[in-house]
């Protein structure tokens, strides 16, 4: 009836020989593998191949596709077919799809859902983007404490499908309030005549709908859990969250953090899937902000143009001096931002961080200052470059400037993220440009001020 | 008999009122909560509190402690007690402990293990740090295909403990070769008279012992699995890996990547737990490497000292120019390194990346160049600073230099990680300093060369 192999061979010119023999229904091909193939070929070809899959496979493959292809497919299919797929998705996959749609697109696709699903999606989209609610699966198995294990098993056989969410069974009271959770393995491992109440461990960790994804990551890690129940404020069980969805969330958080740190706005799609101009936009924004900030360096330097014209040699060390400030600042900022993201540090620890970083800055500044001093002495005495008769004073200027600038860089690098967090801003987003600009501009002022003090009356 | 509450109250002066009533054996306190309390108090107090726990709790709490406290405790306890705890740990927790020990310490503690455990630890420590082998749990439940579900359940009840690893049962042949995996829920959801062979789905993803942790993260994500079996080259089942251990591994990888990117050697412990001097050492190393690299900027600039003395105004723009190169370079490097870490890009895509980044660099350079040009024009015409009669030529110099430097920064930022990866070096570790130094030094050369061409005969 359906033969993806031949279609693939015809429409896709790549090497899909590994998929030979695959007819979309065979057990030994995982939906994610089909998805990977579809994502890697031109959209038109993928669409054609997707259409030719049997309906059951379409529903299984759909959640593994990227959002761009999902939209393309949902628009290209007949309305009833698209509606069928969207309604058949598991609730978390459905939310993931709708979460990434905006405005009109979202409402158009919402109309394809049946009333129950539409209401549920609507409900969950009311929670913030970063909340646990956006990741939950609303299909889960519940049971009451009075049943025997044998009866509970019978109940599960009748009412629950063989899906991942049936790995843990939830015990609720008659109002739907969560009492406890039982891994399904206990139904196998314990005597079937025991009551459910007897195999509870009385310990149940749960998440609230409004908890952030970071809270969830922390809780999964702390309690070594694989699934956690999610309740509302009244402790009524609304859904379950599996750790693999949190793995994605943690990875996305880290990717955003890394990209922000590199001075790029977080990308919505992977690098390879991001269109050229939207990539430029994401990069240009920060690059311009940084550029405009750095323009202050030209202004700062223009205040010292008489010093530079008197002692050109001072200009030679400008890049070295300011890059040292920038490097030590970004080291400190990285350490603090990451420690805050992993909840190892909070704003309250600012005093501990400050003392520590001032001391670190001093130590690191002394190290770099000494190297800088030695560098000038060697170059001078081996006649590699002539810094003039006052080379010793110049070397001292570099020594003290490096100490001052590294200390200043370390201090601002560590405090700016904390201040931003205190102001409810995302430290990862805003720290890099702030630290870079601040340290470069003030670094120049420190350098030329120290030079003015030490070199006054000799070369200045 | 044992009363942690009072001991805690006496020895720890913090506020642990939330733990009042806790006696270390009550069901509603999770071992990780006890561990969190112990980790947050001075080591001596923690040790005293740990000693006072009943043995069963000690074994449960131990894996949640950090390695520093684990070592302290293992050394302070009597040998038989320490040996008991280390032997009772689950195999993955045991490996985690021994993985973080070095040299003599490792061998001393190895002697406390019984022969079976010692051999197993020895075996696994033979695999690379970054391999899946280091994370596996060697306790797992196996079964053969001929049994009925009811008989299989009976078998599990007799031979397996109620632990997380019993969530998925493995079907192996008589040589121990992996045939398939069954989530234990199927034993509940299907008719007990069916045979195990009837409820297999014929689809089994597995990992090899030598796969990297990154491979494992990718596979868990791709197949939406919670546990994966781990085999050797002959497909013999040796252990299982749960996704929560991979969550930690992924987070550690990202932390290392972020720290490397910020120019810090990856820390072994959290920021707050790292001793002052080991923190200085981790930071000083890269800071010195970067500093020595950046010294080339002083050398590069010294070649242009006559140009600078003729036109001091050129020096004013040095920080702006080189920071633009650095920023665009680190943007490109961040995007490429992250995309490679997430396996979105491979070395083979270099030509795609190169074309794209040259074009991005050109576009971004044009944007910054135009802003720079406008900045000089405005300052000149509003008399904010006097760049002299040849200000227009100077503005042109800045314009073309920015285009050249941003293109160069983008190109090196994107290609250096790929080249490093090709040379089997870690792109995250080495890219930041290489890109920064290279772009700064060559940026100066580009700037002064363009200046020499455009300004020859006027101000130069």
CATH 4th-level superfamily of the largest domain in chain A: SLC41 divalent cation transporters, integral membrane domain
Number of strands of chain A: 6
Structural class of chain A: mainly alpha
- Identify low-pLDDT runs of chain A: 13-27
Number of domains of chain A: 3
Using the coordinates shown, work out and report the CATH topology of the largest domain in chain A: Tetracycline Repressor, domain 2
Helical residue percent band of chain A: 55-70%
Shape of chain A: elongated
Spatial arrangement of strands, main beta sheet of chain A: 1-2-3
Helix tally of chain A? 20
Compute the average pLDDT of chain A.
Answer: 85
For the termini of chain A, the CA-CA separation is: 89 Å
Put the structure in a nutshell.
Chain A is mainly α and 460 residues long. Chain A is built from 20 helices and 6 strands.
Describe it.
The structure is a homodimer of 460-residue chains. Chain A is mostly helical and 460 residues long. Chain A folds into three domains: 4-126, Alpha Horseshoe (MgtE N-terminal fold), CATH 1.25.60.10; 141-243, CBS-domain, CATH 3.10.580; 271-455, SLC41 divalent cation transporters, integral membrane domain (Tetracycline Repressor, domain 2). Helices cover 62% and strands 6% of the residues of chain A. Chain A is built from 20 helices and six strands. Chain A has helices spanning 4-11, 31-40, 43-51, 55-61, 67-76, 79-88, 91-99, 103-110, 115-125, 149-159, 185-189, 213-223, 243-261, 276-303, 305-310, 312-316, 318-341, 350-381, 391-422, 427-455, and strands spanning 141-143, 168-172, 178-183, 207-208, 227-231, 237-242. Chain A has a three-stranded mixed beta sheet with strand order 1-2-3. A three-stranded mixed beta sheet of chain A has the order 4-5-6. In chain A, strand 2 and strand 3 form a beta hairpin. In chain A, helix 18 (350-381) runs antiparallel to helix 19 (391-422). Chain A is elongated and about 95 Å long. Residues 13-27 of chain A have low confidence and may be disordered. At the A-B interface, helix 10, helix 11, helix 12, helix 13 and helix 14 of A face helix 10, helix 11, helix 12, helix 13 and helix 14 of B.
């Amino acid at each position: 009836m359906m033969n993806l192999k031949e279609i693939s061979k015809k429409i896709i010119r790549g090497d899909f020989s590994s998929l030979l023999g695959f007819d979309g229904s065979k057990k030994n091909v995982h939906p994610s593998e089909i998805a990977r193939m579809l994502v890697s070929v031109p959209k038109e070809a993928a669409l054609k191949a997707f259409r030719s899959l049997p309906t059951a496979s379409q529903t299984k493959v759909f959640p593994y596709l990227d959002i761009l292809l999902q939209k393309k497919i949902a628009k290209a299919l007949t309305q009833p077919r698209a509606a069928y797929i969207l309604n058949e998705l598991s609730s978390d996959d459905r939310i993931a799809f709708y979460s990434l749609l905006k405005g009109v697109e979202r409402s158009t696709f919402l109309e394809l859902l049946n009333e129950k699903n539409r209401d549920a999606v609507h409900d969950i989209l009311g929670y913030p983007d970063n909340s646990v609610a956006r990741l939950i699966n609303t299909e889960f198995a519940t049971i009451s404490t009075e049943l025997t294990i044998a009866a509970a098993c019978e109940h599960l056989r009748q009412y629950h499908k063989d899906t991942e969410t049936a790995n843990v069974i939830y015990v609720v009271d008659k109002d739907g309030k969560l009492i406890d959770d039982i891994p399904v393995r206990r139904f196998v491992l314990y005597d079937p005549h025991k009551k459910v109440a007897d195999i509870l461990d009385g310990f149940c960790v749960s998440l609230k709908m409004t908890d952030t994804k970071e809270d969830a990551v922390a809780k999964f890690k702390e309690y070594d859990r694989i699934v956690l129940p999610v309740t509302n404020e009244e402790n009524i069980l609304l859904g379950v969250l599996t750790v693999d969805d949190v793995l994605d969330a943690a990875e996305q958080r880290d990717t955003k953090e890394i990209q922000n740190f590199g001075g790029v706005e977080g990308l919505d799609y992977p690098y390879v899937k991001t269109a050229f101009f939207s990539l430029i936009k994401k990069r240009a924004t920060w690059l311009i902000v940084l550029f405009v900030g750095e323009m202050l360096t030209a202004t700062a330097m223009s205040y010292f143009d008489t010093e530079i014209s008197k002692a050109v040699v001072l200009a030679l060390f400008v890049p070295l001096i300011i890059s040292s400030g920038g490097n030590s600042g970004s080291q400190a900022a990285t350490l603090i931002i990451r420690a805050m993201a992993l909840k190892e540090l909070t704003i309250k620890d600012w005093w501990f961080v400050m003392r520590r970083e001032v001391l670190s800055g001093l130590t690191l500044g002394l190290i770099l200052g000494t190297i800088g001093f030695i560098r000038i002495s060697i170059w001078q005495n081996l006649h590699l470059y002539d810094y003039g008769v006052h080379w010793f004073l110049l070397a001292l200027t570099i020594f003290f400037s490096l100490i001052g600038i590294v200390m200043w860089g370390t201090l601002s690098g560590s405090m700016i993220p904390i201040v931003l967090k205190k102001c409810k801003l995302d430290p990862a987003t805003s720290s890099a440009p702030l630290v870079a600009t601040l340290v470069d501009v003030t670094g120049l002022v420190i350098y030329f001020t120290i030079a003015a003090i030490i070199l006054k009356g000799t070369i200045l």
